Amino acid sequence: MVGLLFDLLLLTLSLPPDPAFQAQVARAPAPGTRTMIRIERHMVVRVPRMSLAPSLAAPASAAAPLPPISWTERKAEQCVPVAALAGASITRPDSVDLVLSGGRRMRARLGDDCPALGFYSGFYIRPPADGQICARRDSIRSRSGGECRIEGLRALIPSR
User: What is the pLDDT of residues 31-78, one digit of tens each?
Assistant: First the structure.
């Protein structure tokens, strides 16, 4: 195997240089000359909607589904790391519930002119440079093109 790789390397080195590559080298700026290179990076994170329906793979004899959990809102930090987002669900018309890794939940309150139903199939977030999604700064985008600013974040705790 090593002999084959060595033979391929020798064959590659013995080939005449590519004329297009030689032309690019000839056009390269002289050392010390300033050039500008613009590199653009565009990243969008898709956050899927979490299904609340029971699994179709569950056998018919399985126990009855549990009643839905009611949530109580609590004061919370106003930023969430993008890397912690695992999914989303819509439980109210004015907000989107963010499901975070580890099982925690946060409620993203949206503006009055922005119904949460537009995010029925998930949403997109353009992560800022700091990697945090913050209230009163960042927006979420629906798959249909709508955009809503996050007005506030609240921690969700299961009610007893």
Answer: 555 555 555 666 677 777 666 555 455 555 566 777 778 889 999 999
Contact indicator for 154, 74 with CB cutoff of 8 Å:
yes
Radius of gyration of the chain (CA): 26
Q: pLDDT, tens digit, for every residue of 92-130?
A: 888 889 999 988 999 999 887 887 666 667 788 888 889
Four-residue CA torsion sign, 87, 89, 93, 94: negative
Query: How much is the pTM?
Result: 0.60
User: What does the chain look like in DSSP terms, one character per residue?
Assistant: -HHHHHHHHHHHHHSPPPHHHHHHHHHSPPTT------------EEEPBPP-SPPTTS-TTSPPPPPPPPEEEE---SEEEGGGEEEEEEEETTEEEEEETTS-EEEEEE-TT--GGGGTT-EEE---TTSEEETTT-EEEETTS-EEEEEEEEEEEE--
Residue 132 has phi, psi (to 5 degrees) of: -115, 145
